[in-house]
Amino acid sequence: MLKATRVTKKFGELVAVNDLSFHVQDGQIYGIAGPNGAGKSTVFNLITGNYGYEGKIEFGGKKITGLSPYRIAQEGIARTFQIPQIFPSLTVKKSISVGSRFGARNGLDEDHVEKIIRFVELEDERTQKTGRLNLLGKKKLMIGASLATKPKILMLDEPMAGSNATEIKELMNLIRKINVELGVTVIIIEHFMKVLTELTEKLLIIESGSMICCDAPEAVTKNPEVIESYLGKAYAERD
Ligand SMILES: Nc1ncnc2c1ncn2[C@@H]1O[C@H](COP(=O)(O)OP(=O)(O)OP(=O)(O)O)[C@@H](O)[C@H]1O
Ligand SMILES: [Mg+2]
Predict the structure, then answer these.
(1) Which CATH number fits domain 2-76+152-237: 3.40.50.300, 3.40.30.10, 3.40.718.10, 1.20.58.2050?
(2) pTM (two decimals)
């Protein structure tokens, strides 16, 4: 469904993404992990067309390299950001409507907006200003606004950051529901390895922009190179 071939991104001297190739299958929940500064968010920024790069990215068999972010979004690729990006003075309903207007070819789809508000369980906050939502609420809102564009693939950049155990559980359930009930393919960047091993079918580990390994999560967490460079011995020796 989403295929990157030999993608390289340099910021001046720094090689943020280094000759990276990977393939996300339709219907998968696909994970990306790696140390701080590994190039994970940059991978998302390249997929969404924020920067030029070497190599090629295809989506649904079509080359999207070189398309504008707006066109790429219209192909059915949506994302959330590492730090929640919201319009604090808009209501929840209005914010999700903005997503719907952005994605819909025939204008705003009111029924879809209502469906999404219920889907992310923000119906009680519908008329609240988004600036007043708590962190979990803001995250659900950001996911809801992305879903309102009716994406085929949703890319989540560290959705669990700053969340407590209860919130993580709730977000994990929401991500599963997006994948199963809406049939949306998901790519998730995450630092919590437990979240990745429970949610994902395939896991890509990168370091300094390069792939260290890409496999089923059970295999990845046993990979000596991953343990050495990323997980650390403590993870490998636990339970
Ligand atoms: N716009 C930019 N201009 C210059 N350097 C950048 C830019 N964006 C990212 N970088 C650099 O590229 C490298 C990869 O950054 P990136 O944000 O992709 O890492 P990350 O894996 O998402 O890290 P984190 O886990 O901290 O979010 C870092 O060294 C970062 O400083
Ligand atoms: Mg990042």
Answers:
(1) 3.40.50.300
(2) 0.94
